[in-house]
Amino acid sequence: MKKVFKIVGRVLAALLLLVAVALVVVAYKGGDIAKSYIEEHDKELLGREVSVDNIDISLLHSAVCIDGVKVLEQDEKTKFLSFDSLFVDINLFDLLSKEVNLQHVHLRGIDVKVLQRDSVFNFSDIIEHFSQPDTAAVADTTPSSWAVGIYDIRLRHCKALYNDKVLNSKFELNDVNIDVPGIYFSNKPTDVDLNLNFENGGSLKAKMSYDMESSRFQINTSIRNFSIACVKPYMRQGVRVGDVSGLLDVDATMKGDFNHIMNFTISGKSSLKNVKVTDDLGRLVLSANRTSAELVRLNLTDNEIHLGTVDGDGIGSQFIVDKAGDNISYFVNSPEAAERREERDSIAQTLPDSVKQMVVDKNPLKFIIDKVDMRNMTMHMEDASQSETFVYDVKDFCVKAENVTLDKPNDVFVSGRLGKTGSMEGRWRGDMNDMANQNLTLTLNNVDLTEFNPYFHPLFAYRIVGGNMSVVSQNVITNNELKGVNKLSVMGCSVEKDKQVENAEFKVPLKTALYVITDKNGKISIDLPVAGNVNSPEFNYKKIITKTLLDFLAKVGSAPVKSFAKLFGGADNVEVVPFGASSSSLSVEIYNQLNGVVALVKEKPELKLALTQQINYADAIEESALNQLKTDYFLSLHPDKNVQNLELVDKDDIEKLDVKSVEFKAYLSEKDSTKSFKSAQKYAISKYGAMAPSVVSASAQARSEQIQTYLKQQLDSLAQNVQVITEPYDSTKSYSGKTVLKLDVLGE
Fold this sequence. Notes:
This protein is α+β, with helices and mostly antiparallel strands. It is built from 16 helices and 30 strands. Helix 12 packs across helix 15.
């Protein structure tokens, strides 16, 4: 028995010695063995040529360190991927409890180049290598009893290059740093931190939290000063783009569930600065000093896009027309885009009915913008398609709106400066999905007509040498029926003495017509009402306006009633201009006077001038009171309206009311049951005379502010040379003359 124990003891001792020797060999030679194995079996393991500088295995510290790994491309010459070092620390004792815990995974200096040609990448062969089916293996669906944890994952100073060989697009990342405290396979979320710098400037910081058990994730991203030049190759697939520049900032949060990957929600804010986009001929398409947009919520499953504030400053563009077409059409109609549209259409035709029905049944788009605030926009226009090039600039263009939607009425305001002296204001109220009901108001003030000679000249044979125009227009569409008011006022319009074009497009006696319709003060007033059904095939708004205007000019031109003795004579008189005291807007006569003032100050900057509103308050109060009475009568006929929501067409109807009509007299008789007043004017004074002075004073103040604004725009610092004076209302004093805007010279 003792002999048996001795034999067993010797065997155990020999085994222990072998284990000890094996551990020593592994400790000192295991790295070399692993290195040799990898390099000899690289094609079998990865399908690529792999080289390793060194592998260290430390049993004492349960760590593995791999240095200088290179993976080559399929040509076995070009580098595909490399890294400087990989350090992994594993707790061996946890293996006894069926736990795999990697305590530290540190990867440094990884450098990878991703190349794409159409749908093929330079790593597609690696994916195919690992996706080859193993016919000998039988799938094991038994749940594993092993627990796995990976902690302290760090990537330092990594680089990545993406190159699309077809689009010639390059995207390079430098100094990429990623931190993952731990990857957990339980109910504890995994956090990932990413920091990197872009090759062309800018940086990205991202943090992802992922719960493997619930599949919920959240990604927070911050991008700073990212150059958008890299999007140019992709833009070329749809437009004829030349150069693209600008810097992008983004702060965004994405939340979702990997089990339902399309059901995610994105929110955040982005901004662009110093943007410039040109076409491939070098012509400007778009520029912007700054734009920003706040994304409240984007969810594709709910088909919802909710934007907060969308604003911009210094956005500019240009519209260039020549005989070949315009630059915008040239930019957007690229041959590549047309080919893709045809391809998409052909694919859509082959879709099964079930897929088409899914598209039809998709939730309608819920789109809203809480606030739009675009400022200081410009548009430069050139039309070289005529014999004379038309050049025009729109400046200080602004767009403001709130609660913009696709399926509800919107209220949008626009304003801007036109050409040398003009200005505009507009308002659109309407539903984008209901073109049968729209409301558009437009006001143009002090537009210099001489700037439009490239169009007037060939149409009417004469060049315009002077004149400014104001337009007040409102067009309301109700159930496809259009009712429009278009009032044109022109001051100081004059044309060349001799005809310059023999075969003009329109055979209208323009000189005669202008003379006939010009009053003694040099003013032309034209009222162009428009009506019709917009669904009618014959309806064309432009043709209606043009025909109405031409018919009007032809009629007055063929039946002159004035002497031709002073044709095109007269002098510019800017000393005294009459106006309506109850109106809060500036008339074309006042703008003509202001143009004269601007010319005087520019010619002699040392001049000191005063513009005084001399108001006959007695007449103005009577006019205001009567207008209020007419307004009340109009509102009695339209109970759905009130003073606050009166439209321009409503005010036009009020102005044209005849107080001597049978209907109005009946209304007045009902109001004046005692029959104390003999006229509508007397009744209006008794009812509204007390509040009329404040209404007239408010209108005077509004005119004064508009005059000061216009002088500031045209004269800049020289505007201080012109005082704007409004004589206040005083019941103890009365000015009995005409209500005028008077110009006085204060000195030089």
